[in-house]
Amino acid sequence: MRDALIVDAVRTPSGRGKPGGALSGIHPVDLHAHVLRALVERTGIDPAHLDDVIAGAVGQVGEQSGNTARWAVLAAGFPESVPAVTIDRQCGSSQQAIHFAAQGIQSGAYDLVIASGVESMSRVPIGSQTAGADPFGAGVAARYPDGLVPQGISAELIAARWGLSRESLDAFAAESHARAADATRSGRFAREIVPVPQGDGHIDRDETVREGTTADALAALRPAFADDAWTERYPEIDWRITAGNASPLSDGASAVMLASPEAAARWGLRPRARVHSVAVAGDDPVTMLMGILPATRKVLDRAGLSIDDIDAFEVNEAFAPVVLAWLAETGADPARVNVNGGAMAIGHPLGASGGRLLTTLLGVLEQTGGTFGLQTMCEAGGLANATIIERIDG
N or C: which end of the chain has fewer CB within 10 A? Predict the structure, then answer.
């Protein structure tokens, strides 16, 4: 089986996913096109050689509808012959795009492909695709008669199950902002971020990072999900999830170029890493965010590696208790997890986040001299992706 080589990876800065956010004035197709163009310019590849562009997007409605990846390819100026497809594995959509791209190369179906993702949560608000609709049907309702819950309630249930205090959640969130702010100041994001032109200047920093955030300041925020209906249903919950220990609504795009060894040699591409192993897992759709545990176990088993063999981790910070529960169960070294901060600071533009995690993970491995990196993403419905990459030295 052929190696799936990672040639390069880029992302936009994250903008606040609300009107007036730094990227809110940019159509998601154009935001997506920006990272596609930047990627081919950085690699020097003729986009006519691309076998496919596989992209993730969650809110596939309105301005992100109608196979938005195809319109991004055309907006980027790529030849009309370059195909594209948009996929939805919820928050893991662009991570799944990377999996599909790698599998296509490994099988011989592709030689050169881009896996990407976009989400403009300011222009396509979260939940737009299911607004006023029942996405579950009678069969799911019969199987789960007590009903499914929003992700925020799932995060509360996880915090309660693992006995995670409000203080620990806020401290973890403050640390995420501190790490991201330090990475920004020191230039550790410089290679991964492609600045976005705006007016006479450009945006080159994550708008969502709040330097100077403290646990004491976060402690003043009110719980976000403690309304009467949920407190009556779950009297055992202490209600610890706030806007401060959860990821913010965000706008952003990411893109990763993958190639076969033959294609890399043919076009003089210098790969930065290879996709070592991938896995997906399903779990309880109520406590839906802990699918990352079976996904992590599965990808490590598939790779023949232990948790201690991994030099850097990116565990998506949808909510603080997700990562803290994962740490408690896996025994991973917290110093190796989200080294440059996570989604609570950097943002979580849903369809782009899987590619963002890989882009950041690749940078961390290069900055620290690590070999193996593992990223995992919790997803609605009790799903999760996990990916191990291996840095190529030199």
Answer: C
Note the pLDDT of residue 130.
Answer: 86
Looking at the predicted structure, is the pLDDT value of residue 394 above 70? no
- For residue 39, give the 3-state DSSP assignment: helix
Q: 235 exposed, middle or buried (CB, 10 Å; 0-12, 13-18, 19+)?
A: exposed
- Residue 281 pairs with which residues in a beta bridge? 384
Task: Give residue limits of the domains in the chain.
Answer: 4-125+248-267
Tokens 């690590």 found at? 370
- Per DSSP, helices labelled H in the chain are 28-43, 68-75, 93-107, 137-143, 151-161, 166-186, 215-218, 228-233, 261-266, 292-303, 320-330, 343-346, 353-368
Q: How far is CA 194 from CA 21, 32, 38, 366, in A?
A: 17, 12, 7, 18
Q: Which of 34, 177, 276, 348 is catalytic?
A: 348
pLDDT in tens, 120-148: 999 999 989 988 899 999 999 999 998 89
Give the pLDDT confidence score for residue 364 in this predicted structure: 98
Q: Report, as an integer, the average pLDDT of 211-232.
A: 93
Annotation marks residue 32 as catalytic: no
378 as an active site residue: the answer is yes
Q: Is 348 a catalytic residue?
A: yes
For every residue of 276-343, DSSP letters joined together read EEEEEEE--SSSGGGGHHHHHHHHHHHHT--GGG-SEEEE--SBHHHHHHHHHHH---GGGBSTT--H
User: ∠266-267-269 over CA atoms, to 5°?
Assistant: 110
Four-residue CA torsion sign, 114, 119, 123, 128 = positive
What pLDDT does residue 158 have?
A: 97
Q: Which two tokens stand for residue 23?
A: 């990227």
Fold designation for 4-125+248-267? Peroxisomal Thiolase; Chain A, domain 1 (3.40.47)
Asked whether 218 and 313 are in contact (CB, 8 A), the reply is no
Q: What is the mean pLDDT of residues 221-241?
A: 92
pLDDT, residue 200, reads 83
Of 91, 99, 177, 276, the catalytic one is 91
Length of the chain: 394
Provide the token pair at 364: 């961390």
